[in-house]
Design a protein that fits this description.
alpha/beta, seven-stranded parallel sheet, 10 helices, about 35% helix, binds nicotinamide-adenine-dinucleotide
Length: about 270
């Protein structure tokens, strides 16, 4: 079968550069192009040179439309606004889409799901194998333990991260809520400040740390009187996310329309 053509939106970003690098060295695919934010100083430069892998003969453009026209699958690690626009373009150009962008509002997630009615769309706030396994374990443990166990999700990321709690922390909270058979929205305690009163039984709490160059650390704590169970994951290299995204892009080949998760891609 012919190689799959991959386009990268936001190819000058932290993740974008790693996606260009990993796609360039992966079997079964080739890069068709990359875009950058309008007015970016990276506009017009070679996407390989931006990523530090040498000239690839592909120029970073500003037209997402062109990118979608020439790629079989587009990967988006940018902003929620761009992800929403890209969902519309994916549907309009019959191009598969892989989205790793976090901080999406419900309406933006709905736009991805809507595109998934026309083309394969993979959306995952975390593309690493370890985190997707952790989420399965969290769901299983939450199913086994009752509300005597308080659930808290703790995360730390680098100082540049703009959304909180992280998309992964929220996804782990969702997994815990699913396991316990409750609605996360109704039980999430996302911020605590001042005189909060005692912890409400059954809530799922979140705590956020930001600093330095931490790639991503998450733990889910199940605490009761006299004992505490902690499940955790640490990423030390962004390439685990980039490799997961390329794997997802390759996986879309030959797939029917659908709104898929990394659990589908990894067969978990
Ligand atoms: P970053 O700020 O380094 O990169 C984002 C890039 O997108 C920037 O270069 C920006 O200029 C560009 N951009 C913004 N709007 C654009 C547009 N309309 N067209 C083209 N380019 C555009 O951020 P990052 O650390 O690479 O993270 C990007 C996103 O990916 C964040 O939401 C982050 O939380 C998420 N992320 C997800 C995973 C995962 O596994 N799913 C892993 C790491 C990061």
């Amino acid at each position: 079968m012919a190689d799959i053509g991959i386009g990268i939106v936001g190819c000058a970003g932290r993740m974008g550069k790693r996606l260009v690098t990993i796609a360039n060295e992966s079997d079964g695919c080739h890069l068709t192009g990359g875009t950058v934010r309008a007015g970016s100083e990276a506009s017009g430069r070679d996407i390989g040179e931006l990523a530090g892998v040498g000239r690839l003969g592909l120029t970073a453009g500003e037209s997402a439309e062109d990118l979608f026209r020439h790629a079989d699958v587009v990967i988006d690690f940018t902003t929620p606004e761009a992800a929403e626009e890209n969902a519309n373009l994916a549907a309009a150009h019959a191009t598969s889409l892989v989205v790793g962008t976090t901080g999406l509002a419900d309406s933006q997630k709905n736009a991805l799901a809507e595109a998934g009615r026309k083309v394969p769309v993979v959306y995952a706030p975390n593309m690493s194998l370890g985190i997707n396994l952790l989420s399965l374990l969290v769901e299983r443990v939450a199913e086994a333990l009752d509300e005597d166990f308080d659930i808290e999700v703790l995360e730390m990321h680098h100082r540049h991260k703009v959304d909180a709690p992280s998309g992964t922390a929220l996804a782990l909270g969702e997994a815990a809520a699913r396991g316990r058979g409750i609605d996360l929205e109704a039980h999430a305690q996302r911020v605590r400040d001042g005189v909060t009163g005692p912890r409400r039984r059954g809530d799922i709490g979140f705590a956020t740390l930001r600093g330095g160059d931490v790639v991503g650390e998450h733990s889910v704590i199940f605490a009761t009187t006299g004992e505490r169970l902690e499940l955790g994951h640490k990423s030390s290299d962004r390439d685990v996310f980039a490799r997961g995204a390329i794997k997802a892009a390759l996986w879309t080949k030959g797939k029917g329309a659908g709104f898929y998760s990394m659990r589908d891609v990894l067969g978990l």
